[in-house]
Amino acid sequence: MTALKAATSQQTPLKKFALHSTSTCSARASVYGKCILAGYTDVRKDMCKEEFAQFDETEVVKIG
């Protein structure tokens, strides 16, 4: 059993998501995080929609 598989087998779905998003999709997660950080003082609906869509696409493929 790999370390990643062992770590995720005993965790909640949210923790699994967090682990996968940082270990398998770090580039897209970083782009999305930077977008959120850049506008966190002026949050509005869909402000990082494109970045999230790309990040979410990767997550669906890797986890789903």
List keywords for this structure.
64 residues, mainly alpha, 4 helices, 72% helix
Which strand-content bin applies to the residues? under 5%
Helical stretch tally: 4
Oligomeric state of the chains present here = single chain
Overall geometric form? elongated
Terminus-to-terminus distance: 20 Å
Computed over alpha carbons, the radius of gyration is 13 Å
Q: Give helix % range.
A: over 70%
**Mean pLDDT rating:** 77
Low-pLDDT windows of residues: none
The overall strand count is 0
InterPro entries: NDUFAF8
GO cellular component, one term: mitochondrion
What can you see in these coordinates?
By secondary structure, the protein is mostly helical. The protein has a domain of about 45 residues. About 70% of the residues lie in helices and about 0% in strands. It has 4 helices and no strands. Helix 3 packs antiparallel against helix 4. The chain is elongated and about 35 Å long. The two termini are about 20 Å apart. The model has no long low-confidence stretch (mean pLDDT about 75).
How is the secondary structure organized here?
Elements: H1 3-9, H2 13-23, H3 26-38, H4 49-63
Write a brief caption for the model:
This protein is mostly helical.
